[in-house]
Each structure stands twice: as C-alpha cells, then as structure tokens.
Write a structure and sequence with these properties.
Elements lengths: L15 E6 L2 H4 L8 H17 L2 E6 L7 H6 L4 H25 L4 E5 L8 E2 L2 H9 L3 E5 L9 H11 L4 E6 L5 E2 L11 E2 L1 E3 H6 L7 H10 L3 E5 L5 H6 L6 E4 L2
Parallel strand pairs: 1-2, 1-6, 2-5, 3-4, 3-5, 6-10, 9-11
Antiparallel strand pairs: 7-8, 10-11
C-alpha cells in the first residue's frame, strides 16, 4: 500500500538507508503505548521504501512505553532505567515487525541485548546480508549500553551497515527550526544545515554524540515529519523534504 504524493514507479536516489522512528510515533493520538492505526500507518510508509527497491534498516525508540531519564528523576538507578528502556524498544520492534509482515514485507529484528526467543542477536554482517536479500531489518535495544540514546544507535548502525542517508522521523514536526515551533509561531524552518551549525546552535535535532558521529563520517541526515503521507518514499526518490543536515 502506498501513500498519496508518492509514486512507486519513480527511481530510488539511495541504495541503502536507515530510518529512525521515535517511540512516540507508535502511540499515535493515544497518550502512551502502541496504537494499531499508527503502527499500520508506519508500516505503509516503510512499504513505500520497499516499493522503490531501497534496502532499509530501522532503529526504533521506546519513549511511548518507558523513558530512562524520567525514571532516573523518580529515583531509579540510571543504568537499570536505561536497560528497561531498551526492553521497551524491543516491544515496539516486534509490533512494527508484525505490521510489516502482514503487508508481505520480509522483516528481521535484531537486538543489541540477548533475547533469542524473539529476536536475532545484532551481528553486523548478518544484518547486511538480510538487507542484500531485500529484507527490512529492525534494530532494537539501542546500542545495548546505558547512557546511550537511540539517536546514537541510529548513527552508529547507519555507519556500520554503510547506509547512504539517515532519516530522522519526527512526530508532528516537519524539520529543524531555530526555536520550538509549538511554542513560537514565528519559528523559522531550515531547508539545509551544516553539521557544525546544528551543533553550535544546539538545535533539537538529535543528541550531540549522534550528530558528531554523523559529521565525522559525513553521513547526511534528513529530518522530516513521518506523519505527512508519502514523505519517506519522496525523500528516498530524491525530493527535498524537511531539513537536510550535511557538509556545508
């Protein structure tokens, strides 16, 4: 199933990409948890990439279920709180995998933490082989280390699998702004940004570790609204959508 605004007959501009999906995207209009309509919508967007023939990997967050930083503020030890958050990403990964496979999209989930009953262990060469065979690969449990965000996991996995672009999907935000557009109606959206400028302005793109990793390896980043129909397919077809962060 494709979304309005995207034509699957178009040619892909990228061979391989990594899509970062926030946990908040899975809760849809609900306050928390997993909304079936939102997950099915996300699966449709992923289907657009598959229709283009792009090899796609996904890193998924867990903020709709659990946030380690918030648990730490309530008194929980930070490392334990972060490990709980990694488990939340695995729940989301399995929900998305199920939605993708119901669409006929062959999918594998790999986890940075050992949970062999539900996911493969993360093995770089195996992940690449899955991608070469046309399978979507979902990376769960972040990097497998506390104190590291799923943003950092996204940058790291994108580089490990030799992705050509990192797609940072946002919920109800269509790019990078000079201030919070939900609080400031005069906020200005950037079409393009240099890595150094994004770091220097301390813009809410991703954590600084992830952004620095992308800068050091010249991995382009596209920040866009996941819930505008057809955006994933349009970006992977070469259209200008949202904000692109790259070498100035």
């Amino acid at each position: 199933m494709t979304e309005p605004g995207f034509q699957p007959s178009r040619r892909a501009a990228y061979r391989r990409a990594l899509l970062k999906i926030s946990g908040e995207s899975l809760k849809g209009e609900s306050g928390s948890g997993i909304d079936a309509d939102a997950v099915n919508y996300l699966a449709g967007q992923v289907g657009d990439a598959c229709a283009l023939g792009v090899e796609l990997a996904i890193v998924i967050g867990g903020g709709n279920i659990w946030r380690g930083e918030a648990a730490e503020k309530r008194g929980m030890e930070r490392a334990a709180a972060d490990y709980a958050g990694m488990m939340a990403t695995a729940i989301n990964a399995l929900a998305l995998q199920d939605a993708l496979e119901k669409r006929g999209i062959d999918t594998r989930t790999q986890s940075a933490l050992q949970m062999q009953a539900v996911a493969e262990p993360y093995i770089r060469r195996r992940a690449i082989r899955h991608l070469e065979k046309g399978r979507v690969v979902i990376f769960a449990a972040g990097t497998g280390n506390p104190y590291m965000s799923t943003d950092t996991a996204s940058a790291l996995r994108a580089l490990e699998i030799d992705a050509e672009v990192l797609l940072m999907a946002k919920f109800n935000v269509d790019g990078v702004y000079d201030s919070d557009p939900h609080k400031n109606p005069s906020a200005v959206r950037f079409d393009r940004l240099d890595y150094t400028e994004a770091l220097g302005r301390e813009l809410a793109v991703m954590d600084s570790t992830a952004l620095t990793l992308c800068r050091e390896n010249r991995l382009p980043i596209v920040v866009f609204d996941m819930f505008k129909a057809g955006n994933v397919g349009c970006i992977l077809s070469g259209d200008t959508v949202g904000t692109t962060i790259s070498v100035g």
